Amino acid sequence: MAGRKRFDIPRTLFGLACAGLSCSAGAKDDPDVFDLHLHQLLHVEVTSVSRKPEEARHAPSAIYVISGEDLRRSGVTHIAEALRMVPGMHVARIDSNRWSIGTRGFAGQFANKLLVLIDGRSVYTPLFSGVFWDIQDTLLEDIERIEVIRGPGAVMWGANAVNGVINIITRKAADTTGNVVSLTTGSEDHGIAGFRHGAELSANSFGRVYVKSSQRDEQRMLEGGDNNDDWWLRQAGFRVDTSMGERESVTVQGDIYRGKSSIRAFLPSPFGPTTPTVLDHNDTDMRGYNLLGRWEGDIEDGGSVSVQAYYDRAVREVSGLIDIDFSTWDLEFQHIADLAGPHQLIWGGSFRLIQDEIGRTETFNYDPDKATRRRWGGFIQYDYAAIPDELNLIVGSKFEYNDYSHFEIQPAVRLLWRPDERHTVWSAISRAVRSADRSDQDLNLRLQALAPSAATFGLPGLVQLTPNKDHESEDLTAVEIGHRFRIRDNLSWDLATFYNNYEDHSAFLLSGTPFAVFTPTPHVVIPAISDNEQQIETWGFEWLLDWQPTDSWQLQGWYAWMDTDSEYGDNPNLISTAKSQEHANRRNLAFVRSRTNLEGSLEFDAMLRYVDAERNADIPSYTELDLRLGWHPQKDLEFSIVLQNIFDNEHREAGNNDVVQLAAGEIQRAIQLRMVWRPDF
User: Fold this and answer.
1) Three-state secondary structure along 611-645?
2) Whole-angstrom Cα distance, residue 491 to residue 553?
3) Total-model pTM
4) Strands, DSSP E only, in 422-573?
5) What is the pLDDT of residues 387-436, one digit of tens each?
6) What residues does 365 pair with on adjacent strands?
7) Are 124 and 314 in contact (CB under 8 A)?
């Protein structure tokens, strides 16, 4: 933005480091109150990579863990904001209630290459294979960790685990006994209140219930004034864990929510007006519920078995745009078998039934408007310890059938080498698919044209997208190499490199010759279809450094670089909007976090992040700084103040690169006050 003050990033980083060092001198280290989790990235136990417990440092994949302590000390109030801490993860806020999230490219509001799970329940929408982030929330104090895989996870998780897997894992009921009251208010988060009560129900059973309410303010329009994108969400839930002897356990949990958000939308009429209609303060009603049950049992001679089933209902009514109602039934089974010697086998199967009903409008029209889709399949992974505790070969594949793209095979080969206790080297080659969905095969869409075709006629344009029942899956072949190195006891790094080749990537293509219509309003109709016409390559690396200079001060920083090449630019039938996701990629991302324990039960935390400009230069680079000061007057009580986006009064983080023209806003500087009380600590 013109006239915006520029900041010297190296000088700022140096200043933060010096401030942290001076503050930490003589600081008190109280592990009961302050938990810095040195090397938590390397030593924490994870389950997302191989669907079995293993140390993160031995996982043959690029994985990062956001712990519950990281969430507390970051000052974030929503799961989407917490993902900014993940190396290479691009998280940009479009407006008050929408985010653009992606890793290794293709970020956007409707990004469709990340699989997101909450306690094993997939939260993607089959409408576009992506995630509505505004309804993905829970009591942050109950989250144990968030495991994030960068890169394909298709062998274990199936279609749409293309560029990564985000697995949000809440704490067991036995670990959440007692009460928690959390209250947050501020200039943007006007009111967030949460309450949880956990108790021992019997000698072998624990349970908890929670309620949460959030009210968030609107952001600013690019041209000035309020963006009319405020929103609220109310939700409640429960979890019960029961032990059935020493080897079996049962979990039952569920959530229910209701909310409303507002957006500004540029809505074209069927007649293509000179300027699109602006739906100002357009309401979106959101409601839904889910119920999940899981049984787990250990086998006497080694290994384990688990069975999980859930039902998820989601309703989303966007006035003037679209109404959707989804119901998902899911059942899965898994068996871990410890075979003789250095052999281990993991296998399982799953079945999913999705029923939906989509209301028709002049802009969106799905044919048919009601559908029932099925997906079933299985996976198998063989882990061979060629040299015990040093060299492992891991081979596996996912086999799936779905009603859109039919049979899919997604294999992977991984190699894990641990020459000593300080080094871990891993490599992988894998295939993953983003299966076709309702929007690919069933969508009739009329939207204001961004294509140059209309300019030939000197008239406004209207893209008329028609269904393509032959749309196939997008195909990724990925090669990865990583190295984890504990340089000293208080210093470690994690480096991951990747090369991705996307074939049959989706694009909007002209399906006929544009033609002019002069009544009732002159405009150009641009007939189009969505088809598999792009081939895209991406490559880059993510490098993380974790350092604890003193007992009470921890520094963590990462830098990610990525580049892209595509082979569709000369296609004469390509509509320019097809390039939008690639152009949203950022070449350079950087992040630094400082956590310091001060005297007097005080905490000082800082997070600095740098985001490169968009490739199409619509959005300049920006640097953000968040500061948090926490105080524990007593063990069960915490107060904190958080300052966000200190460098700018307001700035733009994301553009409008999606086919649905929803207005983006400018994210404002904010202050937040928070209290957490644990009376039964």
Assistant:
1) ECCCCCCCCCCEEEEEEEEEEEEECCEEEEEEEEC
2) 12
3) 0.89
4) 423-434, 443-448, 461-466, 474-488, 491-510, 515-517, 523-550, 553-566
5) 999 999 999 999 999 888 889 999 999 999 999 989 999 999 999 998 88
6) 444
7) no
